[in-house]
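Help wanted!
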Amino acid sequence: MSSAVLDFTIPNLGEAKIPSPILMSHSSGDGMADYVLDSTRILFNVATKAGSDGHSVPVDDGTLELAGPRERIYFNPAHVHAAITTCGGICPGLNNVIRAVVRCFWYRYGVRRISGIPYGYQGLLEESSFPIIPLDPDIVDDIQEKGGTILGSSRGGGDQISEIVDSLERMNVNILVAVGGDGTLRGAWDIGEEIKKRGLKISVIGVPKTIDNDLSFIQSSFGFDTAVAQAVPVVRGAHIEARNSINGIGLVKVMGRESGFIAANTSLAQSDVNFCLIPENPFDLEGENGFLVHLKKRILDRGHAVILLAEGAGQNLLPPTAERDASGNVKFQDIGIFLKDRIQAYFKKERIEVNIKYIDPSYIIRSAPADSFDSIYCARLGAHAVHAAMAGKTQALISQWNNKYVHIPIKVAVSRRNHIDLEGTLWRDVLENTRQPYSMAN
Amino acid sequence: MSSAVLDFTIPNLGEAKIPSPILMSHSSGDGMADYVLDSTRILFNVATKAGSDGHSVPVDDGTLELAGPRERIYFNPAHVHAAITTCGGICPGLNNVIRAVVRCFWYRYGVRRISGIPYGYQGLLEESSFPIIPLDPDIVDDIQEKGGTILGSSRGGGDQISEIVDSLERMNVNILVAVGGDGTLRGAWDIGEEIKKRGLKISVIGVPKTIDNDLSFIQSSFGFDTAVAQAVPVVRGAHIEARNSINGIGLVKVMGRESGFIAANTSLAQSDVNFCLIPENPFDLEGENGFLVHLKKRILDRGHAVILLAEGAGQNLLPPTAERDASGNVKFQDIGIFLKDRIQAYFKKERIEVNIKYIDPSYIIRSAPADSFDSIYCARLGAHAVHAAMAGKTQALISQWNNKYVHIPIKVAVSRRNHIDLEGTLWRDVLENTRQPYSMAN
Amino acid sequence: MSSAVLDFTIPNLGEAKIPSPILMSHSSGDGMADYVLDSTRILFNVATKAGSDGHSVPVDDGTLELAGPRERIYFNPAHVHAAITTCGGICPGLNNVIRAVVRCFWYRYGVRRISGIPYGYQGLLEESSFPIIPLDPDIVDDIQEKGGTILGSSRGGGDQISEIVDSLERMNVNILVAVGGDGTLRGAWDIGEEIKKRGLKISVIGVPKTIDNDLSFIQSSFGFDTAVAQAVPVVRGAHIEARNSINGIGLVKVMGRESGFIAANTSLAQSDVNFCLIPENPFDLEGENGFLVHLKKRILDRGHAVILLAEGAGQNLLPPTAERDASGNVKFQDIGIFLKDRIQAYFKKERIEVNIKYIDPSYIIRSAPADSFDSIYCARLGAHAVHAAMAGKTQALISQWNNKYVHIPIKVAVSRRNHIDLEGTLWRDVLENTRQPYSMAN
Amino acid sequence: MSSAVLDFTIPNLGEAKIPSPILMSHSSGDGMADYVLDSTRILFNVATKAGSDGHSVPVDDGTLELAGPRERIYFNPAHVHAAITTCGGICPGLNNVIRAVVRCFWYRYGVRRISGIPYGYQGLLEESSFPIIPLDPDIVDDIQEKGGTILGSSRGGGDQISEIVDSLERMNVNILVAVGGDGTLRGAWDIGEEIKKRGLKISVIGVPKTIDNDLSFIQSSFGFDTAVAQAVPVVRGAHIEARNSINGIGLVKVMGRESGFIAANTSLAQSDVNFCLIPENPFDLEGENGFLVHLKKRILDRGHAVILLAEGAGQNLLPPTAERDASGNVKFQDIGIFLKDRIQAYFKKERIEVNIKYIDPSYIIRSAPADSFDSIYCARLGAHAVHAAMAGKTQALISQWNNKYVHIPIKVAVSRRNHIDLEGTLWRDVLENTRQPYSMAN
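Answered by r_m:
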């Protein structure tokens, strides 16, 4: 994945001198967990070649700082005003993260001023009419059983950095936990830069949110497991629809603007998928090796087909649009409807009766509550964000890497997208399962 | 519901003289169930007025023949070739019905020739290339755990009566169980008429299938309970989406071409619905009492709204289309997309930011496996269909009425649709729950 | 079911003179639901014999008063202090009923004093230390998504009638809605009698709760559908366990102290059950026609078996216990463990290896949230309880009969239990599905 | 976890000379996945200390061989007779593994002789009366939708090594895939040793199965995610039961004989747990710091408590038993029933009314079908087992480590158990969530 050693150094606000109120140990063997040291690090890259002696010759791609509670913290809990905000589209697990953040601040550090910022960064803009939401363990008690975010969410606002920092100053916020995707994290970095410029002591910690799993430097993003779990019965339904009508075709579109992880993993979990179409693997419709010919072959052979489509797939086939959403993301045409129409036209021309059913379950998937996997994950992400902030770390995000919770500098994290490696094992195993051609481009 | 006494007499093929192979009793008190008598009947109408003496003064709207195993049957099981076919769109419970029919023929009557007709009536047409599927208990062992129908389904073919009866004759089929909706049942009646005209001894029994619950003379159709159960989490998701964005509007379209039962019941089950729009209750968009004004009021008051829409609602607002599907049903424009566009345009004009999310879960709902309620129901419907056929009943369908399984002459059953009574208790309770105006027409 | 005409007359507190605040209509055809008249009644018995002319000759078993909002009510909403309590074991749907009661009082009648009585009748005892819970629509907003009851529940207290009525007087409660089973309803009747004796104007309305479905005069009790739905995957798991080990036996115990409805319906919904054992159908273990011989036959034939057991089944086999629970119900020995031990001993003696897995999912089942069927049902039961109380009805319970919501005098309702009729169609269809002998008694 | 460098060298049957029938690439950049090289290895240990220059100073704990398809294979697919067997208790995902193994052999390598060995190693014993099950893609098509294993499973047989190898010889099996736990894998190693001794060319590949997640050298075992997901609603139900009765106590026992991973993870996923009791953390019942005092404190403070118990917890409290199961595992007394009785006795003595509900959902959990996470995992484990076997690897198991699929020598894999590290981050986070004392031993 990496070609040069990246700088994984975590910025911090100053020396952490205050003893942590959390009772832990310094030494192993006493049956009590130890404080985490800043010097404990995790290798970024685990792949290596066996040397002649069979021992490891690791490629040095740098190391990551281990997350967790420190023995000394930077902020006096009695002086902390913590804020948390959730940005962008909703995603399973947001409420779990909010809950974990609030509970860790409250129970572990004794912080009593915790504010929920409504509707993402917009809630920090001057003209915002939405009231700040005071948070405590009672308010967040059961929220994880619901999908979405009790704070509400929105795109946009993330470019009005100066105004946001004004608000933080005015509210005496000294910790900001921002939960969001690529755009949100860029905003968080810029907010951190503005804070530094003004000489303020405000920690900005990101919790990476992307249902598409398209952020690098995080082994899997929260909500992703739930998204796949939600997509599976939809694909099963599409398969039922396809098998139960004459030359039935089930076409399902799932999320994945730039990366096809949901589609790929769903294809592995529910092996009824015959064609998995993802942004990373452009394809042609027409021509000898085009998708339509392969689809026709499948229909003639087996009488039904299931197509699973990431929303960003096949963009090469669509005329570009000039529209952008509030976060600045390019708005795509709906490839699902486009493909459905093209398939129908093609088989009409070929004089083959087909019955095509198009399903777009996106909002159903993203509004689901977190499953147990994501519940555990979010509980731990949220707590680690609090530990990082209290220790005076800033402009960092909490990530899981090689199954360890680590800190990643936000700047590094947003420097590249996570894509499916067409030569990697995930895609290899998807092709093995779907038995589709490895390329459908002419 | 009724204004004149209907003729509920069930046609039959002749006298049932053969002793049933099913061991049952004639007398109560011996701990063993009794054979059902043709003369046991169920009142159609249970509503009445108390007389001056407090006793019942029933309105005589006729009585229905009780379904169940008879002591004497018409067909010699050793001579029976039974066929079953499933027509129209898929619906939860189809496989359960198939399974129950096969098991009852096989285990209870000892019938060994049972054929599955593929893809509905089309599978009986001369040019059909789909092979007949021999059925036995092993083949149907686990099929109820899957949605859809192992026989496949299609619309159409139901008007080629003569050809279908030719096929039945050629195949020596003497019992045909047809599972389907209004069109299928009309076809079944006509097949029965043609059989009578030719002097054949073929029993045609219908099992009514309508996920919309829009057939009269059946208290609730199979698959309907599952459909509502499937719609509930979708509406919950729409509510999450609506609450979590600024002036969020969740718009969900469910099945219901002519009757809004799924929408109405879902509104009772999941009380987040603010507007339940059904075909029976036309509404205006514009004007003082129009839907858009009421929606705006809700948005200004509460900041979010959930709209649940039956697909046949608001047809008065749409320009008619000339298209019909293969069953001859008028094709509607998609009211969901139409409404979404109109809402967006309206709020844009009003300069109010709204975030609207449109969800169409139809295929997800109808491809689900039957829930336990429908599993029980279908198991019993299927068995009763077999009992009716073996007793020589014909041109009848199996229905549940006042919680009893009964026979209904198909001709009566297709004589009117089941609609939500706007003055009845169901709609009254929906309005109570949604607190929407009882009329949004000007 | 009935042998003599029962008196279904509903007691009331006096003439209802106050116009209802609910806007409804008097006449059909205006598109608005009508007020319900006391004189509108529902036939109790729908079974009949065809006369020589084919018309109905109904057996007059009496008629039931239709439930619903009346045009004139007895209580001035401004003067109402309503109380609600939930008694006995928990059951899916309790929170739905509470919610519906609160919302109907609040939104439909404008009642603003609604009190939740904690832990059933115990919360009304003098020495109760549990605070009364004030209820409004905000408090009950989402409670239906959780199992159990926000009011808590307990057995007992129901015999301290005088003390309870003292409390109601002291609190100025004029409406008491009691949700509970047989014992609770007897208590409610007695409370009503005491109120009458004291000349008070307090309405006592019961909402019948029995997960076992063992109350007569209610076609199916709330929570029952959910219980069956929850039991189905447990039986499926038992079947998996049984099939996957050598001579595997899955033994599942479900609720049903006196009536085996959950076991019977689950056997219809999940046809893997080979032996359905219910209280109504005593069986022997030993002997030629005993259960163990039949089980051995099944094991030798097929190599696995699934047994579904109602907790009250086989009580004839157990030595009686003298213990009673707080509601006064006889405590049974655990037939599940008893049967498991006897099966193991028997096969050991027969030198046949068996692998038996015993599953008791009771608490998992009864703590589940209501499914959509029960959600709808509870929403409507709760609203009808409020309509009855506001109209001045008392000592009545809300029931569904022949698919209509009706009032039943509590005294009649508790006069007999609901049992599975061994000669009826439900048990007939269970035997057909399990293919077990209709009797396993010698 | 490790203190000395382990020998991770994988045994093999000889040089792999036959070109693989799988079309892959040798070079990156061509859009096609590459064959995996034996020399590509994964670091075992990723934790490190930052050197003075911030760079990694990895602790060399050895490296693991990457799994995946090789360019040259050892067996000629046309000569392969592959066998697969599943041993021990059932676990979610077994059918998924079987299916993946069969499909990979069949579709990727063209192997046509694949045999299912019934009931684990017992199916290979001389006296076994269970027929071998021929497997192909049709037979395994839908099996993953069901829990359990279509091959059946049993303990025992794993010590009759010589007899098993005799059977493999007689059947001309040259690949044996054994899916099972610690005992099964020890058996597989011994089978491999006997094969070596006899100079046979039979590859034995293990797929590690432990629902308890108690195998070392595998980051998480298949079925474990599903087990936690299944346990969560049970704990939610216990919480409902506890909250809804006076001083309610919900006591849930989950699997975990030697390691408490299911209990710990469930406590993180469902934060209603107040006491998580695991084998790794012995506790006292009595005494000042004993469990009962802490439970009493919780009950007096909050009126309810939820206890989640691994089945192996508190064994120090129980008198030992001499019994062992067929796999040779010590049979424990049921700590759940023991604890329930002790809690009741304690509160009776303390004269505090408590209502305790004990739930043991083990068979429900382990018979569930795999969730999407485990479905993906098993699909990939199974395929990798086939790739390993075809390449001539033997006495190895397929594991996931640092998110990569790797080969582990079985001998190393069974050399130690996986336990929760009481000083590690998992247990730290559990304590943070439950807020129970880190020790309840005096």
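OP: Thanks! One thing I noticed: Residues 224-243 of chain C form the longest helix (20 residues).
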